[in-house]
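Sequence in, structure out. Go.
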Amino acid sequence: MLERKVQSQLLAWKGRADRKSLIVRGARQVGKTYAVERFGRQCYPESITVNFKETPSAAAVFQGDLTVDGMVQALRFRYPDHEVAPGRTLLFLDEIQECPEAITSLKFWTADGRYDVIASGSLLGIDYNRPSSYPVGYVDYLTLRGLDFEEFLWAQGLASELASSVYQYFEAREPVPAAVHEQLMGHFRLFCALGGMPEVVQTYEDTKDFRAADRVQRALLQGYLYDIAHYASASEKIKAEKCFLTIAGQLLGKENHKFQYKVVEKGGKAAKYYSSVDWLVNADMAATSNNVSSASYDLADYEVQGNFRLYCTDVSLLLAMRDFGLKQAIVEGSLFGNTKGGLYESFVADALLKSGHALRFYRNESTKRKVDFLIQSAGSVIPVEVKAGRSAANSLCALMKGNSEIELAYKIADANVGMGEDGVVTIPHYMAMCL
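Output:
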């Protein structure tokens, strides 16, 4: 059983007196159904799951008038063995994207206030089956992604105290004891080879077989391609699939990780493919990191339109686009060149996404200075440079010297924690989760 942080988030939602109906968003197979059903079993005397993909006929509950009393009565007829009672029953509407009327009904569940309702689904960010009345202002949102590195450590059987100690060393800016550091670097390389998709992690934990985990990764990738084929419009299907499948090459196969349409297709242009990238992002299959022209707050004001990097929303999917031999090289530490740099950069992007950060990078074409990530915290900008080895972060240091607003920066490298005289804090790759 994989422990997930989302359980505490669901408990926090339940504890709010002003809670609304909750929509749990996320790509397919990140553990949405498992998390909500476990929460229902643990925290409610009664829990009812309505899965609109598994039982399309359940949509009949939401036909006609969407009064709460009418829907409750229909649920009682359809699920006679379950109690539907205020304060005692959790109603879980799974794969809700398949039933537009059920999405609309969330407004009325919230306005009524007697029942706790959680909805979940993939592809809720696209216009597939868009309901005529979306419950804007009547729902809370929670985004679930694959396991982050701390959750992965839990899955590996490491005590929560050890995982928590990583944050303590990070905050104190003190080196991690050598033996612990080496152990964590081993787990980091393992995470890079597996990613955070729950089924992949659980398969490896059950079998300790990379081949078995690889088969699950590739099946998940095929599932994502099926979603593109099934849910994207006719004009986007082929283009979105092409863009998605070039992510690995864009990140691991070349030095400049800017997304280039000419890699998707010879002579490819934004006019043809930008809407397809947008579809992938809205479907939670990919995430963009936007270039900014200045490392100043607020970064959103300095974004350069059309200049971005594209990442998979979990490293598992990136690995499935590459040969199985990549896993062996990762675990053995024998990666080199653009592949190693691109993979470690993808790992940090994965960590930042799962911590809730928007992804942005800095690149100045005239000075050729570039910094892999810029994040915002408490009204300030924090640059983050990712190194596969231990080389100097020259662009990062130059950026700090030329910008008095920046007081703190991080170099993520194959090294232990250290504090440089230039204000740059060096941290090991696995501490990206602390940012």
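Check: The radius of gyration is 23 Å. The chain has 17 helices and 14 strands.
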